[in-house]
């Protein structure tokens, strides 16, 4: 899984790369389940090509159904949550445990037209709390270097990060133990 927040264009926020800190209201964050499968697939289907490229590293991912199933089927190694507003899925965040103890790969996708409202940041903060309570103390993500919104989202969450560039990709690592605002379990 790859982390990704996607920019908006036009009237959706101008693609400035800055969060404006408007929290969606009312927004509910909860674990995903099998009944959310169609909503997860629909969220990706409604993204434009650039948004899909920034999240999946291809504008036309062929594995969306498998990915959605991995997020909505019960699993011991995948934790997935969704943000809902008025019953509509507006964002998804998940992590997958890695072989290295205490590490998990994190990913986020926010619905088209919902960017720069704090959805991704709220999902990351909630997922970080769940991770800490489950013994995960590091998130890692491979993102396109051009995806400034991911870095902005992590900054807005208040998490210290290390970043290593490898060609077009950045490997971002978050030390959740150093994130002071995450409540200790």
TrEMBL record:
<dbReference type="Pfam" id="PF00583">
    <property type="entry name" value="Acetyltransf_1"/>
</dbReference>
<feature type="domain" description="N-acetyltransferase">
    <location>
        <begin position="27"/>
        <end position="177"/>
    </location>
</feature>
<dbReference type="GO" id="GO:0016747">
    <property type="term" value="F:acyltransferase activity, transferring groups other than amino-acyl groups"/>
</dbReference>
<keyword id="KW-0689">Ribosomal protein</keyword>
<keyword id="KW-0012">Acyltransferase</keyword>
<keyword id="KW-0808">Transferase</keyword>
<dbReference type="InterPro" id="IPR050832">
    <property type="entry name" value="Bact_Acetyltransf"/>
</dbReference>
<keyword id="KW-0687">Ribonucleoprotein</keyword>
<dbReference type="InterPro" id="IPR000182">
    <property type="entry name" value="GNAT_dom"/>
</dbReference>
<dbReference type="GO" id="GO:0005840">
    <property type="term" value="C:ribosome"/>
</dbReference>
<dbReference type="InterPro" id="IPR016181">
    <property type="entry name" value="Acyl_CoA_acyltransferase"/>
</dbReference>
<protein>
    <submittedName>
        <fullName>Acetyltransferase, ribosomal protein N-acetylase</fullName>
    </submittedName>
</protein>
<feature type="region of interest" description="Disordered">
    <location>
        <begin position="1"/>
        <end position="28"/>
    </location>
</feature>
